[in-house]
Amino acid sequence: MLSLALGTMITITSNHWVTAWAGLEINTLAIIPLISKSHHPRAIEAATKYFLTQATASALMLFSSMTNAWSSGQWDITQLTNPPSCLLLTAAIAIKLGLTPFHFWFPEVLQGSSLTTALLLSTAMKFPPTTILLLTSHSLNPTLLSTMAIMSIALGGWMGLNQTQTRKILAFSSISHLGWMTIIITYNPKLTLLTFYLYSLMTTSIFLSMNSTNTLKLSTLMTSWTKAPMLNTTLMLTLLSLAGLPPLTGFLPKWLIIQELTKQEMTTTATIISMLSLLGLFFYLRLTYCSTITLPPNSSNKMKQWSIKKPVNTLTPTL
Amino acid sequence: MSLIHLSFYSAFTLSSLGLAFHRTHLISALLCLESIILSIYIGLSLWPVQNQATSFTLLPVLILAFSACEAGTGLAILVASTRTHGSDHLHNLNLLQC
Predict the structure, then answer these.
(1) Quick check: is A133 in a domain?
(2) Domain total for chain A?
């Protein structure tokens, strides 16, 4: 856990490619035992898939920085001049973050790990590659990034529609939020950071609520109102905030991104991504419906199962 | 000079193709990963030779240290998957389908 913080700090504060790569490697190595802690076959399989994809992406990133160094003579992160290495770097960061078309590992890895590890995987592990993307965003190909972002939002919405496992649903929501973050990165990187912070705050509160009621499936979510009713209502609000409904905080990044895109004369893109986020709205609404609005078919009296350490997420939806 | 560049670029490309198209065993994927790192190491060790800048000779050693850690982790994962799944065949890794 400490080495995760160390690795993240190393990558964020680096201006040489090798230190950035070293921080990413430290992060990968540190989270593998966290994923595979439970010795369940699914956890080991998730750890294998995670390790292979992340190691490939790190090696690809190092190779792109090396070709850039051979062609331009310096190792600075902000000066990436060689076009093939920009392309390879975009591919490497897309693999690391889980953008389409490299998203296939993400739902399975999230499914195989425990809820707190999944939280770390979706929020903290996305932070260093996002930082590198921010540092190099002026030299990357905007068309490629926008295409990957639109496909991510589309795929995150579509593939999340048939899921009943909550971790997979959150994985697909993560993929589509990454799409929203990537689409604006070449025009206004501050909006990317804002989206990332708000997304990680909301996802943290959802994961922690799910962790305290231990809901891994949609059917468990239906009976979670008996365990902690207050938590359930705030879970509903947070889910709707993640979907991006207007009075809640989650609407803010979407609004600003659409505004920025229309300023840059990309109105068709803005329309397309707003339409595609309706798909995500469907499964968020389904989660909300199952958790708060309906009662389960069998009768269940008020069960007090275990003492819950209440996280501070009762305030985050009202942020 | 560009012949040497061609050698490690092609080594990298071949290794990454091997990693992408591995079919039966997990260990072949780990081997290709190691050869990717090795080609990067060779490319990086030529840097101080070419530029006569001896302060960059630490870089390949650092990369080697990190990649050794990573190889160790890969092997540990291989052992763990052999313990839980029975072999390292890749079509056994299908517990987490949608």
Answers:
(1) no
(2) 2
The Cα–Cα gap between A204 and A198 comes to: 10
Q: Which of A69, A111, A162 sits opposite B96 (nearest CB)?
A: A111
Model confidence pLDDT, tens digit, residues A199-224: 888 888 888 888 777 778 877 777 77
**A132 and A17 in contact (C-beta within 8 Å)?**
no
Domain-located, residue A236: yes
Q: A44 and B62: CB-CB below 8 Å?
A: no
Nearest to A208 by CA among A110, A106, A107, A309: A309
Q: Is B97 an interface residue toward A (CB < 8 Å)?
A: yes
- Cross-chain residue pair A44–B47, CB shorter than 8 Å: no
Is there a single domain that holds both residue A110 and residue A151?
no
Taking CA atoms, A247 is separated from A199, A312, A318, in Å, by 16, 21, 9
Which positions in chain A touch B96 (Cβ < 8 Å)?
42, 45-46, 108, 111-112
* A78 and A179 belong to one structural domain: no
Residue A295 lies in a domain: yes
Q: Do B77 and A32 touch (CB under 8 A)?
A: yes
Tokens of B53: 């800048």
Is A36 in contact with B43 (Cβ distance < 8 A)? no
Q: Which domain holds residue A45?
A: 1-114
Q: Are residues A94 and A203 in the same domain?
A: no
Final residue of a domain: which of A47, A79, A114? A114
Distance from CA of B49 to the nearest CA of A (A): 12
Domains, chain B, ordered by start: 1-90 (1.10.287.3510)
Read off the pTM.
0.86
Q: Are residues A287 and A206 in the same domain?
A: yes
The number of beta carbons lying within 10 Å of the beta carbon of residue A51 is: 26
Selection from A182, A178, A95, A176 nearest residue A140 by Cα? A182
- The verdict on a CB contact (< 8 Å) between A45 and B81 is yes
Residue to mutate among B77, B85, B91, B92, with most A CBs inside 10 A, is B77
pLDDT digit string, tens, across residues A119-132: 888 888 888 888 88
Mean pLDDT for the stretch of residues A57-76: 86
User: In angstroms, rounded to a whole number, what is the distance separating the alpha carbons of residues A200 and A238?
Assistant: 12
Interchain pair A62, B16: CB under 8 A: no
Are A162 and A259 found together in one domain?
yes
Find which of A36, A52, A158 to mutate to test the B interface (most B CBs within 10 Å of its CB).
A52
Query: Is A25 part of any domain?
Result: yes
- Answer with the one of A74, A97, A114 that is the final residue of a domain: A114
